[in-house]
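Teaching assistant here, posting this on the class forum so everyone can see the example we discussed in section. The complex has two components, and the goal was to see what a joint structure prediction looks like when all of them are supplied at once.
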Amino acid sequence: MAETQKLVIMVTHGPAEPELASIPFSMAGGALASDVDVVMGFQGDGCLLVKKGVADTVAAPGFTPLRELLPTIQELGGKILVCSPCCKSRGLTEADLLDGAEIVAAGRFVAEITSATNSLTY
Amino acid sequence: MSTVLTEADVAALCVAKVVDARGTGCPGPLLEAKKAMAGIAVGDVIELWSSDPQTKADVAAWAGKVGHGFLGAVAAQGYDRVLVRRAR
């Protein structure tokens, strides 16, 4: 049986840039549909995308809106990790984030990336 | 079988499930195909409707990756009917 593959997708653009914010979710959806495990890492303004309610406002032409993609990604097992200092500097706590989102530090990101088949950064 | 199907080809396939993903953006059709596969038996066929002209090639690549059988597509009025057989 083929070994499970894992893709780590780092997201650094926020709602102010809808296309760059949408592409990583599209890639995550494609990977999960292809039976590839997905970990999404949110840093910088990317953290704002997983603040409750924000994804409802982000849509780019040609892409499935985030309000539809994000729940599907979580439903299919995609993990959401959010940068701890980035949250702190934006006044975000785990209570502000989507259910299932986990605030982590650099060590966890490094562990996920170095154990992944590949990683993408947007 | 060619990837360009005829109406007769489709009629002969005994489609188990039709999935209407018209109007959805990337990667909507692919996610709909994945969900549909979970609801049919191995050996059955889904017919995915998509208004995105890239879907045919995308589904062919996806099927190859996950081990399903891409049967081809037939053009309809403003959309494609893409046929995939569940193989595992």
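For the discussion questions: The mean pLDDT of chain B is 94. Residues 7-85 of chain B form a domain with the Translation Initiation Factor IF3 fold (CATH 3.30.110.40). Think about how each of these relates to the inputs above.
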